[in-house]
Fold this protein.
Amino acid sequence: MADQKISLSAFSLQLPNSVVTVRAPCVVKLLGEHAVVHGRTAVAAALELYAFASFKRSLVDGLELELKDYNKKVLLSNKILTGLLDIYKKRESLKSYIELSKLDSIILPYATIAAIFYERYKVMINGTVSISSEIPKQSGLASSASCYSAFTVLLVKLSGKTLSDDEIIELARDGERVSHMNEGAGRIDISTAYYGGYVSFSNKAGFVKHNFKVHPKLLVINTGPKKPTAVTVGRVSELLNENKEHTEKILDSINECSIKGLDALAKNKMQELGALMYKDHELLKELEVSNEGLDKAVDIAKKHNAHGAKLSGGGGGGIAIALLKTYDKKLEEELQKEGFSCIKAHISEKGSDIITT
């Protein structure tokens, strides 16, 4: 990035008078979570639950950010964004950046994206951006990635700039980096929320968008509060330190599930995919990232003859995903008796894009 200040007059934009809204889908991990952190392949899918970012012109000098789900509103002036960017570029760590920014931790990821965008592309947008989401938070559905993806795509659309997919994904990932205090965060979540459909990721292959025309019957099972992803990721790192050879074998087996799962999706073989999901869950249990609620949800799904089921996301609570032969009312009733909520889920083939103008 060039070391130059953002100018309010850098560009005179013809901003729309009507509301412009971008939506981004939520993300589930079908296979490969945790192993992907250590270089293996993960497979994710976008679902038809969405985060929304809406712009409307308003009489403000800067970008007014409104987070409806948190009842928070802040005006990000040119001065604030310039100062923030200076701290971000000189950061010793993400932790030090968060501490020095003195911004609300919910606001900061969006402000970081905006500061980088304005400096890099010399565009200042004056008006109000409202963020809202129908995605359950902190459950394993990558709600933050969906919000940052929608916000970033909205800024790009309003600016009239032409950015590559990789540039947009990397910009949205700055929100995930700050939110999760992890420089490597958001790789598969942001790319899936951005592209939609099915996406795989590994360090070697990078992001791969798969054009599978497959619409499985999925049930998202929310088992309740989850541990922070940083905690469960940290536990796997501890296991690698304690018994590297054995843990690497588990990670390799999870990777094999992901590779075979991609082939099953390509051939629309749901029974094979389901068997791989059950196997993946057992491997994740060995990595100590499941819990009693997730295991119970998977066992109930198996009892009702689901093709497959597993935890999805960081684990330690949150969601499980079940691949069904058919939607089963008795399955849902038994899950609800355990205190779990269920959502019938459908693949969102579209990623982050404008839905209203």
Q: What stands out?
A: Residues 1-12 have pLDDT under 50 and may be disordered. The radius of gyration is 21 Å.
